[in-house]
Amino acid sequence: xxxVVFHSIHILGGVVMRNPKVSAIVLAHNNCEDTIECxxxxxxxxxxxxxxxxVDNGSQDGTAxxxxxxxxxxxxxxxxxxxxxxxxxxxGIVPALECGSEYIFILNNDxxxxxxxxxxxxxxxxxxxxxxxxxxxxxxxxxxxxxxxAGARYRRFPxxxxxxxxxxxxxxxxxxxxxxxxxPTCGLLISRDVFEKIGLFDEGYFFFYDDWDYSIRARKxxxxxxxxxxxRLYHKVSRTIGATKQTLGFWRIWGKSxxxxxxxxxxxxxxxxxxxYLALREGTKNGLAPMIQFVVGAYEGYYQK
Length: 305
What we know:
Oligomer: single chain
Helix content: 25-40%
Structural class: alpha/beta
Radius of gyration: 19 Å
Order of helices and strands: EEEHEHEHEEHEEEEEEHHEHHHH
């Protein structure tokens, strides 16, 4: 006996559209209050076929227990230790795909979404299956008229990947859908096809550069990264990462991720210029010890396989 699969439908502006199955994966490492606010916004989205997952990435503040008590429908994965951004997302993506999800909506725990954020991303995704990664307009949580990111682009000199619209006031120029070179992973909709073709995030990046790496891999595989300004997301910006900046290990990991990225996608010259610039900039602001750790990490990331 065969099975017939019926997809839910959604009426948007008088048009009936298919609702593919979506899993939203929230990645959390401590900051329980932010996680609860993020999940609360997800439970209110206007979308009928949504599974919500929390990946508790080694939290030590009772995040998993508090979420389980407050959100009985949220599926919780506890990693037991901090796997980093790439590893944490992968821990949620694998079971979400096994559940038959057609799209994965990855989110940092320091963001909130609007009711129509997901449906607007899906509406754009269904226009063309080559739209493999879809990014909302990301605005600051504290100032919702100011942009944190409308995507990212490569800057030739000094060589770097820089945010589009960073700190700019929102306006008409940021309301036009377009294709992107890069998209940050604090909030992205990614199709199942992308994961099946290019795989998961590279866990060699503990944090930083994992998103730029995945963007390049997706584009090389023929997918388009699409900016969808009608979908809006509000970002508290580095609540988790910011707490680690006081440790020297933070700088070494950052450098190592940068070295790994340029070994894979750049040249020794672009690595020297960009990572050297970052080392000098951060050393000037934070002192000699962080700069040394950054340089050591960059060396490790570039030369160690």
